[in-house]
Design a protein that fits this description.
Elements lengths: L8 E6 L7 E7 L6 H14 L11 H9 L21 E2 L5 H7 L4
Length: 107
Amino acid sequence: MQKKPQPPTLKAQIKLHKPDNPIRPVINNINTPTYKITKHLIEIINRHIHLSNHYNVKNSTTLAHDLTKLQINENHRIMTCDMKDICQYTNTRNTNNHKINAYKGKQ
């Protein structure tokens, strides 16, 4: 149980490299009432269900190392996924300038 539970915080990451600078919402749940119980449930589930992490990437260094050992033949295909299909974005044109300035550390 959290000693001082708080609501989740919402921050925005502006994608400066994309047209119209969409915003990626980032939610921090660390101090929320459900954080510790969720973490505990994940530990219980992981003890009983062993899922292969074959397709997970730990970090870019590990990915680069793994790719150098990859053997590709003519039957292989490359697939990429873009998070825009999973997350909804808010366009900065429709966003209040005060909120954008607050994100950038200005008042």
